[in-house]
Specification:
Number of helices: 5
Structural class: mainly alpha
Number of domains: 1
Distance between the termini: 37 Å
Helix content: 55-70%
Strand content: under 5%
Length: about 150
């Protein structure tokens, strides 16, 4: 399982009142600092690594399509996903970003942490939707021979 360093997770989260909002990684750092068990902390580190990997993939597509939506996925109007979305776990995909968030959610007792995880899930789904959009556009261009 790939993950970012502990030092990276200890960075200050920053001001939440910025106009752009906060990034997925900042939300995960808040969760990392709020959870007590070692497994959840490790999973937070993995989630940040996964998000950075997805962000790099988005960056490559942005360059191809000359689209400057900003380099990070920001929390603007992300509403927490429904609680039922956080239920269920498929061991086959245990290191996929959404599954990692579900695992942390299932081990947490804190309602505040659970709410942040539901927001993080909404952000992860947004990242995935953007990536799928670019992949579909790329496939369409390739099928047209462009």
């Amino acid at each position: 399982m790939k993950k970012v360093s502990r030092e990276s997770m200890e960075k200050e989260v920053g001001d939440h009142s910025t106009q752009r909002g906060v990034t997925f990684c900042q939300v995960m750092r808040e969760i990392y600092k709020s959870v007590d068990n070692k497994e959840s902390k490790e999973l937070c580190r993995h989630a940040v690594w996964s998000a950075k990997d997805l962000s790099n993939k988005l960056g490559k597509f942005r360059k191809i399509f000359n689209n400057d939506e900003g380099k990070k996925i920001w929390v603007r109007n992300h509403t927490p996903v429904m609680e039922r979305v956080m239920d269920g776990f498929d061991p086959e995909y245990k290191y996929m970003l959404c599954q990692v968030l579900r695992r942390i959610y299932s081990t947490s007792d804190s309602e505040k942490v659970k709410l942040k995880l539901r927001i993080a899930m909404s952000m992860a789904k947004s990242i995935n939707a953007r990536l799928e959009k670019y992949k579909n556009e790329m496939a369409s261009l390739q099928s047209e021979g462009i």
